[in-house]
Amino acid sequence: MRLAPKAKAPTPKSEQIILFRVGGALFAVSSSSVQEVRSVDSLAGAAAEIKSSTIKKVRHTVQRGDQTLFVVNGTIHFGLPLTPGTLLFILRQTRTALLIDGIERMTSMSQLQALPAAFHGAERQWYRGLTALDQTVIPVVNPEGFLTEHEVVQLQRSISETELADAAREQGGVPL
Amino acid sequence: MTTLAVTAPAGALPEIALQSVVLLRLGERRFAIAATQISELVAPSRLFKFPHQSPRVEGVILRRGRIVPVCEVAERLLGKKLSARRFYLIAIRNYGTHPEWVAIPVTGECELINSEVTEASPTDAPHIAGWISHDGNVIEVLDVSALTNRPEEVPFNARRLANVTAQPEVTL
């Protein structure tokens, strides 16, 4: 009679993440949520300013295919001291291009702990949870938490108003 | 058929029970928490901070692989923040039916004692679960859930007050 093979301990599922800095603070985002990483320099000329933006953290848009993405300044979003952003994360399945200071490294996490219930503010939308890496706790951002649907509508309206104002100015023509 | 309701006569003494409580120190004052609400007492470890908008949460610590929020309670209890801390008292806090650990910074030694706990009255502050008398001092027994409550949560004492006022009047 043969003994049944010992059941292997289940290997914890791991998720590839990118560690990045915003305003000096460290965050993580799932690699699968990042469609593209662009340097701010490479976007010079491609970004358009939203002149009448009511959302302080969004001042520019970037055109990607037929979609307009909103550039969210990470430091303003998280209420951190302003730092010059150098990179943009184009976040998959969102209208967000996140302005960050830089990428720290890529790694993997095996456990994502839900944000403790003691946290009750906007951070519940900002983060998917927390992870412990090398004896450090890092918040894992929620790609959909940078802009609410309401904010997207407001931004869209601001763009339309800017476009209308520009068109009116053009129609006014050059004075003879 | 007549149903008789038994009610405590007006002016009756509050209920008294012997309970295990943990005495803790915050600055110059001492407080108590029911031992059943305490998980452990740990030395201060590294506090991890990240952006958030929960004013009473200082950050988180790592304890036995768990991420535990550190709740600042000194400001609420003493009217000022305390930067010094000697231990973290890890308390069990219920969010609805879901229990979670929270770390409460304390500034001095803690002591486990058995004491008679007098229930708080409806007029006491929401975070007071009762009172004990120890070493000639009257000490507040804290309700961890009310002390660390979120803005949308109804304070413990407000619930108690609601229950009291909802009771029918005593007919003599």
Descriptive notes:
The complex is a heterodimer of chains A (176) and B (172). Chain A has 176 residues and is α+β, with helices and mostly antiparallel strands. Chain A has one domain (15-171). Chain A contains three helices and eleven strands, in the order E-E-E-E-E-E-H-E-E-E-H-E-E-H. In chain A, strand 5 and strand 6 form a beta hairpin. Chain B has one domain: Beta Barrel (OB fold (Dihydrolipoamide Acetyltransferase, E2P)). Chain B has helices spanning 74-78, 144-147, 156-166; strands at residues 16-26, 29-34, 38-42, 57-63, 66-71, 87-95, 98-106, 111-119, 128-134, 137-142. Chain B is globular and about 40 Å long. Chains A and B meet through strand 2 and strand 11 of A and strand 4, strand 5 and strand 7 of B.
Percent helix of chain B: 10-25%
H/I helix tally of chain A: 3
The largest pleated sheet of chain A is described as: 6 strands, mixed
Write down the overall geometry of chain A.
elongated
Q: Compute the number of structural domains of chain A.
A: 1
The assembly state of the depicted protein chains is heterodimer
Helical segment count of chain B:
3
Structural class of chain A: alpha+beta
Question: If you average the pLDDT of chain B, what whole number results?
Answer: 82
Helix content of chain A: 10-25%
Concise structural overview:
The complex is a heterodimer of chains A (176) and B (172). Chain A is α+β, with helices and mostly antiparallel strands and 176 residues long. In chain A, 19% of the residues lie in helices and 39% in strands.
Could you name the key traits of this structure?
heterodimer, A: 176 residues, alpha+beta, three-stranded antiparallel β-sheet, 11 strands, 19% helix, elongated, B: 172 residues, mainly beta, OB fold (Dihydrolipoamide Acetyltransferase, E2P), globular, disordered C terminus
Strand-helix topology:
The complex is a heterodimer of chains A (176) and B (172).
Chain A: E1 15-22, E2 25-30, E3 34-39, E4 47-49, E5 58-64, E6 67-73, H1 74-78, E7 87-91, E8 96-100, E9 102-109, H2 123-126, E10 127-133, E11 136-141, H3 149-172
Parallel strand pairs in A: 6-8
Antiparallel strand pairs in A: 1-2, 1-9, 3-7, 4-5, 5-6, 7-8, 10-11
Chain B: E1 16-26, E2 29-34, E3 38-42, E4 57-63, E5 66-71, H1 74-78, E6 87-95, E7 98-106, E8 111-119, E9 128-134, E10 137-142, H2 144-147, H3 156-166
Parallel strand pairs in B: 2-10
Antiparallel strand pairs in B: 1-2, 1-8, 3-6, 4-5, 6-7, 8-9, 9-10
